[in-house]
Fold each of these.
Amino acid sequence: MSNLITQNEIVIDDWTLVTLPKVDQEIRKQAGKVVLFKLTGENTISAEQIANTQIPATGKIIVPLSVYLARKSELATRIIKQEVGIWLATHEVLESLTNAESDLNIFPLIAVYVERFADGRIFSIGNLLRTRYGFNHTLRAFGDVLRDQLFFLKRSGFDSYLIRADRNAQEALQSLKDFSQPYQGAVDDKQPVWRRLNRSQNNVA
Amino acid sequence: MYKYDEIDQQLVDERVAQYRDQVRRYLAKELSEEEFRPLRLQNGLYIQRHAPMLRIAVPYGMLSSRQLHKLADIATQYDRGYGHFSTRQNLQLNWPKLEDTPDILAELATVEMHAIQTSGNCIRNITTDQFAGVAPDEIIDPRAMAEVIRQWSTFHPEFALLPRKFKIAVSGTKQDRAVVQMHDIGMEFYRDAENKVAIKVWVGGGLGRTPILGTVIREHLEWQHALTYCEAVIRVYNLHGRRDNAYKARIKILVKALGIDEFSKQVEAEWLHLKDNPNTITEAELARVAQHFEAFDYAKLPAHDSSFDAAIANNAAFAAWAKRSVHPHKISGYRAVTLSLKPHGKAPGDATSEQMHVVADLAAQYSFGELRVSHEQNLILADVKLSDLFAVWEKARAHGLATPNIGLLTDIICCPGGDFCSLANAKSIPIAQAIQLQFDNLDYLHDIGELELNISGCMNACGHHHVGHIGILGVDKDGSEWYQVSIGGKQGNDASLATVIGRAFSAEEMPGVVQKLIEVYLKERSDEERFIDTVRRIGIAPFKAHVYATTEPKKEVTHV
């Protein structure tokens, strides 16, 4: 059974995730001055890895950001056919995508990979994609995605969630409804509750 | 104080249901230890040495009588009949059962309380001055804004999983009592040149392993933009704060690494996009919240009360208490009162269920049914008539709540330490008790005068030892407990961080060490000079010389 939730229901995943070939030794090092404090081990992705990444010849594919940037020309016709989505990890620099593409809506899907549940950068990235960069197609979270993140992910602009394989997506659906009237304005509803509803008529003892 | 409407109530009720299900899934092993951890922490639940510890939120320190009665009942029913008031103005229960915590939260929800975001890597309880709304020197009552910020920060989706905890304090006085410079974001509300309410914003303060006082990031921010500006600051932090090392993950480390100019530049660039978004506060919304904090229906009273004056003249014990525990009030004939949770020889900040019931009754009878928790870990009745002070004192004294030591050496700020906390390197409560007993002579205590002594059981600094006039830090050396002493710290507008005087001491040495520090002060002080003033004038050298001249280092093996 599918573990993908999109638009509040469980659906079959018709996208193929393209991953970089593994290297023997993963390098994790602190970044230089520009992206201070980001774990950019994966930014040391080698040209060889990018070149060796296997891209399926047909079907809908989600391509790593680094591969897309380096091999964009190969994908040009498939982009027009709406077959290319992009994925990036939470430590990657979102601006390298937005600098390369002025219109993100050429992609029917952008996916953000979160390695650990506790990594809340995914929320800011979702927010920026929706509010700053105007992305209005499917925004998917995958990786260590568990039900207790869903409400926050939804409010941060995500509408698709690939629940970690060992968990039940049907149960996870419940958590999209954890709270009926959250206080603050966010991506899904820009209005804070006091603009959404009339609170002033409530009695003050 | 703020009263819930159906929206607030629904939110805490839904939280109880959500948390109950999280606990169920954990107990059913559907959630691993590691997965449950951030969930329980965001509900204030720690796994401690003996039992879980549950930290209950007391937003900006405000409580009603009804709420305190409920807390007392919960402590009786689910704990061992007492609770611990913390330096973040919250209440901690040390002995609840994990299985009971959903029921405790359900009980709390019936009195408009919760444990949301009292721990975990998220925006924590908003704190402020315990005399907010009644202090004569107050320019702006910050409580309405504290409530607006509380609501905005509750389950903020973008900032639910930050690199580390995030603390915000607000203040509306010239004399800062909310230690805004010690917070991740500190906000001082003031009136600008056009008499409009504005905010001076500090960022990147914090204690812990690397104590740093905050830096001003904005001298002037219009109050309407408080939330969107916080969004800009916290977004920069969320995206760029370190996540590889918990000890380097606070915003202070990011601010220091980037430099305030670069950090500020990034925040301003972010804010350009966020400014004027719908989270911008309107006059109407602030007014809706502020009506909950409107002044009480105070009686018109003369500035003096003859029965009070007579009691002061005739009763030395009452006079000694009043001198330390009674504080000025903006309304004629009223005073604020601090009830001491620091009786000598007891754990600082602890209150029994019986004491909580007594304080709740006192608040109901004498102080409009409300009270506050101070970050110094005492309880405050903020609106007591001068003519009622004697009656309040008698009842408080009968229940061990009137130790006349507020602001004195034995009014020790102290974390739970190694007796309870699994993070601690050393016990802190027994040290506090030993020092209190060393200085049990009240005349001597009053002669020493104002002195803040802070104890933390580890470098996480919950006891705020860096800003104590005397700060004590528990350290672990080869598996035994030692104590490092520093002097010269101070909270407030002229805040400073304390300097370590030298090698650490054993627990048994500590009362004697404090005694030596006091001896130097009493010898060196000029008239009217407080301990902190003397330290600032003569430096730490004379203190160091006296303390180390007369104590021999003990062999560590004797303390294993």
Amino acid sequence: MREITYLEAVREAMSQEMRVNNDVFILGEDIGVYGGAFGVTSGMIEEFGPERVRDTPISEAGIAGTAVGSALTGMRPILDLQFSDFITIAMDQIVNQAAKIRYMYGGKGMVPMVVRTPSGSGTGAAAQHSQSLEAWVTHIPGLKVVQPSTAYDAKGLLKAAIDDDNPVIFYEHKLLYKTSSHVPEDTYSIPLGKADVKREGSDVTIVATAIMVHRALEAAMELAKEGIDVEVIDPRTLVPLDEEAIITSVSKTGRVVVVHEAVKRGGYGAEIASMIAESEAFDYLVAPIKRLGAAPSPVPYHPELEKAHVPQVPNIIQAVKEMLKRA
Amino acid sequence: MDRLIVPDKITDNKLINLYKQMWVIRFFEEKVDEYFAKGMIHGTTHLAIGQEASAAGVCALLDVEDKITSTHRGHGHCIAKGATADKMMAELFGRTTGYCKGKGGSMHIADVDMGNLGANGIVAGGIPLAVGSALTAHMKKLNYVTVCFFGDGATNEGSFHEAVNLASIWKLPVIFVCENNQYGMSSPVKEMVNVDNLATRAQAYGIPGVVADGNDMIEMMNVTDEAIKRARRGEGPTFIEAKTYRWKGHSKSDTKKYRTLEEEKEWMRKDPIKRFKNDLMKAGFLTKEKAEKLQEEAKKVIEDAVKFADESPMPTLDDLLTDVYA
């Protein structure tokens, strides 16, 4: 099977939908001739034209609300939010409008929209262009939240997100854009709410999201050399969360490390850890649940500080080893 | 006898119906006010008594397929866009027969099928939604227009400026109707904005800004007609500033310390319903008797609405988690 990059997979998912469904369109800043800040929409305006690959002014609140209003009246917009940090400016429309409209209106009307947005650090863009704020939106009933870690997952999850009749926040990790995997040329859908076991193992479960899936897999390879057998679970979607997959894995291994790039305090790892602690998997735990996340500071500029801010492979290895030492 | 100059779309019969509709709106809100005071409706509510001409006058020009977005002070907009008083009252009573099955309340009444995209609890929150609705019309080549109601306070929100700019650059079929009722909660507009007319803000976005007497039905209908024609011709949005006044406080807890009784009385003399009645009578469309009859009919509509709401079922706890997702 051919390999394409995560970035190409995202573009392909959008293009394939736009070829068959005229209601699907993209709006966002610099997505036309420029091709988007990271090149995701490169070439799309040539195929679909400026009406459907719609360049907007720098107006995150305005364009988010425009997407919501168009979704409510029959379109299926994809809002390209240039950096996920900018969701702060679009928050009223996403949280107070998109997420609540169906419920507030007693089940009438729906808001089928996708907010695609690049998140994460590692690019030297510092504090206002590197955050991982996904926990904010997971807190809001009415929204779905997706975080693909591979090109294959990105394509299938994005199709599912576009097909979904609810607002979906779709986080793309900047450092993953250039990573490749086998991706079918035909369209396919990965259901939202279905975790993926990225590596099977029996000693420790690592629940990891986005870029941390890859660091967890790297850590697992290192640990395997020492005879430690790690299972890596990628939830892929935070809302809805495949609780069963996590509970099953933790019940099997009895140990779990939850790792994400977002700041540990109040991060989604706290939700996953709590969910495990409240579940029947608790009875199987032989060590306390361990969380790894970013340090409680803004993302720093200096490359070494930036690296130290978020979990790296050695941190994951260390966490697993410490956990195994306990029991 | 004076001749009434109104848009072609407004038939003689429509004029009479509009007069009754204004009373339906007025009586609906008076009833809501009464029931809140008695504790028979809970939560909060924002009344637009005194502002009926902008709701009724603007929506008089709309067809079923046209859309509106409304505000926290939106009962009048909803009724004028075709909502029935019984389902609205049922919503305020928190009943399953209400527009939102008792889950939205006063600030979230919507009727998407009838083109009412919803009241909104966030000041200026509905403005980008209206632009999105207009974008759908543009992209799907549909002929409907979207009217976006908001208050004077909303023009200081970023969403207002972003959305108006978007509608202007894309020449979208949307009509921005700013009901300037002189106060954003307690803040006088003249202390919060350094221009005499909010309509001048339209100039910054390259669209027409029209100042209208918001208590004059005839003027409201005529300026709206112009704006809708412009929108349907594909020439883009218009900003209409309707100068008006809310007779009641911001919400039920308001003691109105920020304004004087004299000012209130002065505006009550400019009652938009009385004024429309006089216009209709002078033009020979209405007699005193007919006017009284219509007023009585309107009162009956609200009495029936209360009865409908009161007899409607309450939601059950099973409804708590329904409709969070589609």
